[in-house]
Amino acid sequence: MATTGIGQHDLSDYALVADRITLFYQRFPAGRIVTELYSRTEREITFRALVYRGAADTEPAATGWASERVG
């Protein structure tokens, strides 16, 4: 079993982001993914992603967060 550090998560079923994006657009060709810079400091940057299944959608079907820290 492949694991990460803190919390020891099982990565055996993990799909890379690029693969998940490809699958999303295959399933929802009119969908869109909007990324927003949420915050940035000298040591950390945080983004939010909003996922819309259709061109007419006004509310996201899902949201996600990603953050990276120096070190």
- Write down how many β-strands occur, each being a DSSP E stretch of 2 or more residues: 3
Helix content range of the residues, please?
Answer: 10-25%
Q: Roughly how many Å apart are the termini?
A: 26 Å
Proportion of β residues? 35-45%
Describe this protein's structure.
This protein is α+β, with helices and mostly antiparallel strands. 15% of the residues lie in helices and 37% in strands. It contains one helix and three strands, in the order αβββ. The longest helix is centred in the N-terminal third of the chain and has 11 residues, at 17-27. 0% of the residues are buried.
Brief overview:
This protein has 71 residues and is α+β, with helices and mostly antiparallel strands. Helices cover 15% and strands 37% of the residues.
Describe the protein's topology:
Elements lengths: L16 H11 L4 E9 L3 E9 L9 E8 L2
Antiparallel strand pairs: 1-2, 2-3
Using brief descriptors, characterize the structure shown.
alpha+beta, three-stranded antiparallel sheet, 1 helix, 15% helix
